[in-house]
Amino acid sequence: xxxxxxxxxxxxxxxxxxxxxxxxxxxxxxxxxxxxxxxxxxxxxxxxxxxxxxxxxxxxxxxxxxxxxxxxxxxxxxxxxxxxxxxxxxxxxxxxxxxxxxxxxxxxxxxxxxxxxxxxxxxxxxxxxxxxxxxxxxxxxxxxxxxxxxxxxxxxxxxxxxxxxxxxxxxxxxxxxxxxxxxxxxxxxxxxxxxxxxxxxxxxxxxxxxxxxxxxxxxxxxxxxxxxxxxxxxxxxxxxxxxxxxxxxxxxxxxxxxxxxxxxxxxxxxxxxxxxxxxxxxx
Length: 283
Prior knowledge:
The chain has six helices and 14 strands. It is α+β, with helices and mostly antiparallel strands. Strand 9 and strand 10 (200-206) form a beta hairpin.
């Protein structure tokens, strides 16, 4: 069974007073104990209500009410999700909440999550179950992985600068445990690189000697709201490469073009996407 252990707000949490390093360490110890016991699922603290809002519906119409809210004891400061065999087991863990928190003056609330089996069979529950199964098949992340023929470092550094990203990793074969098995002229090739572009990642690597094969039938697709920005990116990527389709208006965007850059990577650039009223493909 899954439970939510809710830590109620108090004057300190509503004022945004951050926990001490000692309390943070104590909470980590507590969470690690639950993690090792197979009980801990997740947990997070919440910012004060002054940084949040409520959405009240009156006759079906939403009204947004900005915080802060006065009824402090009814507010939440954080929560922990537990997976326990019974309410009694969850209570046992709740009783072990660190007394260092607010000098031992804390109010916790423990509630069990509904399981789908708690509800009567029906189409609505079947759809919820199907959605849960769909979510379970989704990966935690997905990204592109590009193959290069000795140009990975140069290419990924260029992409990071051009697309406003950050290089998160750039590791050579020389830095791996198998460095002794790699030919000297290949040691500085990249075995793994990774750039972060606003939370979206592109990975890349140099293929070992004799294993490189140009990518076919796949392109990196970029979309920009600003038409001129899209055009500039297209032109910069096209330098030293091959334009497959010039950047021109099309029925779904104010500008679209296709190219293969100087590193052998194919790109599709969209700029100024058209809305449903003007784009036949979206009707």
